[in-house]
Predict the 3D structure of the following.
Amino acid sequence: MILKNVDLKKYNTFGVSVNSDRFATFSSLDELEQILAKRNKSKILVLGGGSNILFTKDFKGFVIKNEIKGFEITNRKNNNVYVKVGAGEIWHEFVMKCIDLGFAGVENLSLIPGSVGASPMQNIGAYGVEVKDLFLELEAYNIESRKLKIFSKEECEFGYRDSIFKNKLKDKYIILSVTYKLDLKHKINSSYGAIQDELKKNGIINPTIKDISDAVIKIRSHKLPNPKKIGNAGSFFKNPIVDKKILYDIEKKYNKIPNYPISEKKFKLAAGWLIEQAGWKGKKIENYGVHKNQALVLVNYSDAKGIDILKLSNQIINDVKEKFGVILEREVNIL
């Protein structure tokens, strides 16, 4: 069913109230094609979990919500298992199912909000793991040609919180399913200090994938607000990657700046630390602001407008640039 003039508040985790001209859901390729046949050249926006988007105005077009489900083991080879998952599945529920089945690889990505379909689009990542590390292929539908295409890992052009679907092919394809290559022989990744601290606190010396997942869930639950209680889209900014010289210049004044080597010449900085040093952590402006436990997270406390949250992000970007000479980039899509 196609609905008109629909409030999108419950379809985005920021909880911003804006209207869409038309709205529909689809749970199969047939339903998607039936909806697109009634498009009438309207602008299309595909929503999954609505967890990485900030609406700043009404959407003058057709919003379609992807609700394609499915969890299929397509192959087992050596110590790997290949799992094809519907793009409309909830990411965290998929992670939990993998852990229950003993499929390793996704445990460090526990409790990340959103849908499976958004995972390769954003190349989501946390605690030393990115989706590209587990990705085999995805199936997508070309909106204009009405044809299906299988994208390999190379064709997705993954980058840091980036893929071809966020630039060259933005708004060109609708992801229907994603296939991941997971491990039956577990390789535990506990390299991040926060995970090590949590395991040590619980007296765990030889962690299982469930132990890692439990640790990540506890860390994220403490740092990040539940979008069902406080509107937010998780990390609003990417961690900036800078040249060695820029890092050294900052270290002259701030020798304890957290940084992580990417290569001999490139280093990743902690955006949350930069924002906190610029004085924004926990700052509240009327009914929106910066979260008290994690400066990377902008929050909507109650019926804030998306445009106000966008302006707040602009102020933060300007202050961090003035203080450190580093330009932050938004991770959240602005509409």
Notes: The first strand starts at residue 3 and ends at 7.
